[in-house]
Amino acid sequence: MPIPELFRVLLVLSHWMLPSSTGTDQEPPETVRAAELMADLRRPDGPVDLRRDAAKALFASDRETQVAALPALIESLRDEEDGQVRLIVLDIVTALGPNAEPAIPALVHTLQSDYGGRRREETHQDYRSALALAAIGAPAVEALRGLLGEDRENVRAEAAMALGRIGPDASPAVPDLIPLLGDERDRIAREAATALGRIGPDAVGPLIEAATEGNDDARPLAVEALGRVEDPDDRVRLAILDHLDDPSPGVRAAAGAALGRLDLPEEQLRALLDTLLRDPGEGIRLEAAGVLADRPGLIPDLVPTLTSMLGSGDEEAARVASYLLTSLGPEATPVLVDALRVADSPVGPIADALAEVGRSAPGTLARAIEDPDPRVRRGAALALGRMRPASPEAVPLLLSSLRDGDPDVRVDVLAALVDLGPRARSAVPAVREALGDESAGIRLWALEFLVRSAPRDDRLLADLSALIDDDDPRVQRPALDALRALGPAGRSALPAAIGALQASDPSVRLAAAELISSHGGAASEAVPALASMLSDPSPGLRATAARTLSELGRAARPAFDRLSPLLDDEDPGVRQAAALAVGASAPDASAARPPLSKALGDDDEEVRSSARRAIQRLGPDAAIFVPDLIASASREEDRRSVERSLRRFERTGPDPGSVPELIDLLGHEQEAVRLLAARFIPLAGPSARDAIPALDGLRDDPSEEVRAQAEAALAQIEGDLD
Q1: Which of 13, 147, 521, 597 is the one with CA 20 to 30 A from 508?
Q2: Which candidate, 504, 455, 503, 507, places its Cα nearest to that of 483?
């Protein structure tokens, strides 16, 4: 609490705690303090700080004072609008527990009411109100049962949560909670399951029935709730064990998750987990792994099953098995290495496990990376890259394998060097040679390594530029992206990037255009190639070419004649980019006016917005667009944006030659257009006198605002003439 606020609260408390000097039949001190605090708390029209201080003082008071103040606290729950006061009051009521039973109706009212706060604040108050009801205990059960039928999801979920916190005393709510296990809103269903598990024995029978006869959503949650029952009896154990063979994977997973809480004999538990680990359902295997993670002593006897999972061809099953085997430490290394020799075993998860256990047996990986089996060498290489802290021998061992005869091994060696990052900087010369490898995968990983591990290397720019001409798009794209990330330093790669605009792969052309765009006007030599892209069959590439040309500014002028027709393109993204490019490449504002005026009337809002931005970028010469902008205010959704665009012309005024167009707009059917035209005509200088008859006619306009603006315009014109 800030010092000034703490001082104020202490001052309030010290005032209220002063002994009374009147008479001998004094009220008990706690009653006096409660009365004074209640008086301040009941001042809804008074300063909010006074009510906050009173609430804080009550929170700091003894229990007797808080109980005495309960009537005022209840009133605050019903009437107080300040969120801070309400939260403090809820904390006090929660602390009172069963003594706050008279507050139950007010707490229910709080959950049912909208106090106009932000959504997050309202949600938090719902939670705190439900906590207060839970603290009251059994007397609040009937009220909470009623709240389970509320429309608001948050209220229903919090009511279920509160019933669970009450525990066995909430057993009358079991019939209300059971149907919620099948609720379409996951949060409500899960809160109901948690509550039923906490209620315990009285919920067991209905839960067993729901686990067997409920719908597909309710059955797994019913089993999950059974697993939450404290001190489960034989009924619970039997039901959970029966559902281990359920046809539903979700039910089997819920039963598997509950096994660890059943206090089964170790031999029985091991046998059940062995079966679950072989289950085809991924979720079931994960639940079994969760139980084993808490019982690592069972894992050594399950090594045969885990070994079969490693070679099953199922990557997720292998990941679970690898994770569990790491608990064996170095003893798992031979099992993991042998698993790599199985053709169907996934190398990645096994390499992760080897990285974990290899820290205790680094010599094993040194031997494995020279193993005759290429799959073993791959796993060892990946493990060396992923081991943390990294082994000092990792880089030398990986470099020795960089010329491995198997291309898959070389790929994984490079991937491992990438994982090591700057720690492997000494490998840069050897990796650079891999840029010429015949395998595109190896070239790609070599590129990735150089970008990550040697971003300031003097030869990196040349390396990346050369890869723009690679014959595989998978290499070209990241090379272009990496050059763009270099910023101005990548300027020398522009000729190669311009050449890539003619690549057969659309994604390469796109990456090349984005690189060129990042250099702005400095990339003027790319204009002819970009102009040719404007007729590309891909809308995305046409838009990218136009967008890139807009970034080049005046350098894009040669492409102007090819950009204007794109404002008729069927793709709105292309028209949007073309509008910006037309404004950037136009020889002057007069040339830009026909296409941009058309864009101001486009059906797509983003295209119209781009046209307004393009006009703004034309500077003072854009004054000739004032009539076009005013006319575009006929769309109500654009009106505010148009008015913002027009503000820049309030000092300079419209182009004098546009007065006839503005006069025509005085007769527009839209009031907003007439109003803007009347406002801007007087700013056109001496030419505005031609508008006097039309403005005079607006004195009979049906809009009072237009009539007033016309009068003001006439007065301004006549004043200028004088």
Answers
A1: 521
A2: 455
475 token code pair: 């290499």
Q: How many residues does the chain have?
A: 722
- Decide if 264 contacts 272 (C-beta within 8 A): yes
Mean pLDDT, the chain, whole residue set: 90
Helices (H), 23-69: 29-41, 48-59, 63-68
- Up-side HSE of residue 184: CA atoms within 13 Å toward CB? 0
Cα separation, 697 vs 150, whole angstroms? 61
pLDDT at 310 over 90: yes
Q: Six-digit token pair at 640?
A: 């505010």
The CATH code for residues 519-617 is: 1.25.10.10
Residue 410 per-residue DSSP state: H
- Integer Cα distance of 240 and 253 in angstroms: 11
CA dihedral (182, 186, 188, 189) positive or negative? positive
CA distance 681 to 577: 32
358 contacts 388 by C-beta, under 8 angstroms: no
The type of residue at 610 is: S
Average pLDDT on 648-676 reads 93
Q: Is 265 helix (H, G, I), strand (E, B) or coil?
A: coil
Q: Pull the structure tokens for residue 166.
A: 């009450």
Percent of the chain scoring above 90 in pLDDT: 73
Domains of the chain, residue spans: 519-617, 645-722
Contact present, 208 and 226 (Cβ < 8 Å): yes
The secondary structure of residue 25, as a DSSP letter, is S
- State whether residue 26 is helix, strand or coil: coil
Q: Which residues contact 1 (CB under 8 A, 6 or more apart)?
A: 9
Residue 154: partners with Cβ closer than 8 Å, 6 or more residues away: 123, 126
When pLDDT is cut at 50, 70 and 90, the band that residue 115 belongs to is low
Residue 31 has pLDDT above 70, yes or no: no
pLDDT grade for 14, boundaries at 50, 70 and 90: very low
Q: Are 184 and 156 in contact (CB under 8 A)?
A: no
**Do 645-722 and 519-617 fall under one CATH topology?**
yes
Q: Take residue 96 and report the two structure tokens written for it.
A: 């009172």
pLDDT at 223 over 50: yes
- Across 388-537, the runs of DSSP E, i.e. the strands, are none
The answer to whether 563 and 578 are in contact (CB under 8 A) is: yes
- Domain 645-722 classification at class level: mainly alpha
Contact assessment for residue 435 and residue 410, using Cβ atoms and an 8 Å cutoff: no
Q: Any idea which residue has 């491992």 for tokens? A: 416
